[in-house]
Each structure stands twice: as C-alpha cells, then as structure tokens.
Write a structure and sequence with these properties.
The protein has helices at residues 30-41, 75-78, 103-111, 134-138, 150-154, 156-160, 167-177, 185-191, 206-210, 217-234; strands at residues 3-10, 16-23, 60-63, 66-69, 83-87, 94-96, 99-100. The chain is of the alpha+beta class.
Length: 237
C-alpha cells in the first residue's frame, strides 16, 4: 500500500502543521496513525487517548476538518487521495499539538447545573425511576453522553458566542430536568434560560450530525426551550 501523507497540528494556538509519511495499513484508524507518528517519527507529539474502543471519548480530534473520535474512524473512510489533516478540537484552547484544554467545556456543564441534586441520603432506600415513565423515555438517548466534546467542537454557535453553554451542557440539563429524583429543576431551568442558554441555539444540527454516539442534543435543547417557556409563563422562573 502507498504511504499516507499526514499533516498534524504542532504547537499551541500559534502553531502550524507538520508533514509526516505513515505506512498505510489494513483496517487502520486515525488514532493508529497518530500513535505511529508519536512512536516512530516524533516522540514529542502530544495527544490524548485511553480506551481505544469508543468508550472514553478522550481521543477526539479534528480530522480533515471534521470533529471525530479517532479510535473509531478508519483511515479508509476519511483519507482522500491518501491524505489526512489532523488538528485539535475546535472551540477550545490548545495546550500543545492535539491536546486541548477542556476546562471551559466542563465549566459550562457546571453553569448549566449539570450535577444531580437529590433528596435521598445513604440511609434511604434507592430512588427508583420507572423505565416506562414519560420523563425517562424523553431522555432515553441523552443519558448516554460521555462528554467527549465532539459536539462542542462542531457547534457554530460556540464559535460565534464563547459564552454559549454548548450542546453537551444543555443536553445534560435536559436529562436532569426530566429526572424525577432531582430537586433542582427550577434553578436549572433558570440557569439555561439566559442569552447564553438554550435559546441561543440556531438549530443547525451540527451537534446531532457529528455525535459519535448518535445522540441528538438538538432535540434536548428544543425540549429545554419548551420547558423554559412553560416555566416562565407559569411564574416558576
């Protein structure tokens, strides 16, 4: 097989791409390519990975302009003319090479009140949620989010408005306002109702299109818009 021509981002925000040649292999993933470069070409290349099987999400990068999990992206699906361009996730500060600073991503989860707040203590019995309840069914898919940041990187609104909470944080808020065990519904709705919250979403569907778990943050954000409106009209917030 021919060699791959690979351009990889090097440095921090003011860096540039560096060219490498990597042997083409059968069933090769983009993460395999990055690992080869780090092990065989330049040991100073910085990148993140952990599970390698699509569970942790830490290997997310921008491949040929599209945010993806690199461990689940085969070179054969994305390498046009045996060429790859690999960059860090967009919309996040670059620490070095392919490693981004995820703090603002998770800070926005906190701003969206993304932490479960219950009333039970360890002395109480388990608070059960019926899998058949309408609330549970509303968030059937949304609870599978693993916080990889792909949707945040793909979101145009985040690019325009750095205060926007983003698809993942709003998806998390949507799952929690439908959790019958949670006691912070009103505070959470107020947190996502502002200019940087759910109403800032332009429904471009980039997050839904790019989610590696096939979730639809767009649907959750639409649900939040309805819930915020109802809470506003009723005087809850």
């Amino acid at each position: 097989m021919d060699n791959l021509k690979v351009r990889i981002w090097r440095g921090a925000e003011a860096g540039d791409f560096q060219d490498f040649e990597v042997p083409r292999q059968e069933s090769q993933t983009v993460l395999d390519v990055v690992t080869y470069v780090q092990r065989k070409c330049d040991p100073t290349l910085a990148y993140r990975f952990a599970c390698r099987v699509g569970v942790c999400g830490s290997c997310a990068m921008t491949v040929n302009g599209v945010s993806r999990w690199t461990c689940r992206t085969h070179v054969s699906k994305v390498a046009a003319d045996n060429t790859l361009e690999i960059a860090p996730l967009r919309n996040l500060p670059v620490i070095k090479d392919l490693v981004t600073d995820m703090r603002e991503f998770f800070d926005k989860w906190a701003r969206a009140r993304g932490r479960f707040t219950g009333s039970k203590t360890r002395k109480d019995g388990f608070a059960a949620v019926s899998p058949e309840s309408k609330e549970r069914k509303r968030v059937e898919a949304g609870i599978e989010c693993i916080g990889c940041g792909v949707c945040y990187s793909a979101c145009d609104v985040v690019s325009w408005n750095k205060d926007y909470l983003g698809p993942a944080a709003l998806n998390r808020a949507w799952t929690l306002i439908n959790d019958v065990r949670d006691t912070a519904r009103t505070e959470r709705l107020a947190a996502v109702a502002g200019d940087a919250g759910c109403h800032a979403c332009h429904t471009h569907l980039n997050c839904t299109e790019r989610c590696p778990k096939a979730l639809s943050p767009t649907a959750g954000i639409a649900g939040l818009k309805r819930a915020v409106l109802a809470a506003t009209l009723s005087g809850e917030i």
